[in-house]
């Protein structure tokens, strides 16, 4: 009886989840409205240098997030206005900070980005060597005669770990 009830409950829950499921629609791809192949190449070049602020592990050229789409449109707009690549990148950095760049400049505010991984590695190695040195300094406490006999009996299979013979 309980099995039938649980089966019916599972069927109802799974059917209800299907009712609320929706088909996701991909974000529209931003196609530059500039027909000039040089300008299209510039859009791709600039977009590959800028990080998607939503995805963080993709450039705005690779991302389909809405913010990335808006940033691509902004790049297209500024190219159409005649701005240079550096002016467009400077505009994005002014607006979103150095984090928007895939290769942020080496300066005090980005020092942790550049030095952090190496510092973490050195600290991890130091912790490893400290732990190993600490273990080496520890003296092994010898077993009592009773503990040694019990260990030998365990190894020979004469007794189980609970102490039964």
UniProtKB/TrEMBL annotation:
Tell whether Phosphoprotein is among the UniProt keywords: no
Q: Which UniProt keywords apply?
A: Heme, Iron, Membrane, Metal-binding, Signal, Transmembrane, Transmembrane helix
- Residues in domain CcmH/CycL/Ccl2/NrfF N-terminal? 22-155
Please provide the Gene Ontology terms (biological process) for this protein: cytochrome complex assembly
The record's GO CC annotations read: plasma membrane
Pfam families to which the protein is assigned, alphabetical: CcmH
Kindly list the GO molecular function terms attached to this UniProt entry: metal ion binding
Residues that span the membrane, as ranges: 111-133
InterPro entries according to UniProt = C-type_cytochrome_biogenesis, CcmH/CycL/Ccl2/NrfF_N, CcmH/CycL/NrfF/Ccl2_sf
Q: Would I find Signal among this entry's keywords?
A: yes
- The signal peptide annotation in the UniProt record is 1-21
Q: What does this protein do?
A: Possible subunit of a heme lyase.
- Note the PANTHER family from the entry: CYTOCHROME C-TYPE BIOGENESIS PROTEIN CCMH, CYTOCHROME C-TYPE BIOGENESIS PROTEIN CYCH
By sequence similarity, the record places it as follows:
Belongs to the CcmH/CycL/Ccl2/NrfF family.
The molecule here is called Cytochrome c-type biogenesis protein
Species name:
Parasutterella muris
């Amino acid at each position: 009886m309980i099995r039938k009830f649980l089966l019916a409950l599972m069927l109802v829950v799974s059917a209800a989840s299907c009712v609320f499921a929706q088909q996701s629609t991909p974000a529209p791809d931003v196609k530059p409205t500039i027909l000039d192949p040089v300008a299209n190449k510039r859009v791709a070049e600039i977009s590959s240098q800028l990080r998607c602020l939503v995805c963080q592990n993709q450039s705005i050229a690779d991302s389909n997030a809405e913010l990335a789409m808006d940033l691509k449109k902004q790049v297209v707009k500024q190219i159409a206005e005649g701005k240079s690549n550096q002016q467009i990148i400077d505009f994005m950095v002014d607006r979103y900070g150095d984090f928007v760049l895939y290769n942020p400049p080496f300066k005090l505010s980005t020092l942790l980005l550049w030095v952090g991984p190496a510092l973490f590695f050195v600290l991890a190695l130091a912790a490893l060597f400290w732990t190993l040195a600490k273990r080496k300094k520890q003296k092994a406490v010898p077993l009592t005669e009773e503990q040694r006999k019990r260990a030998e009996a365990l190894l020979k299979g004469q007794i189980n770990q609970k102490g039964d013979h």
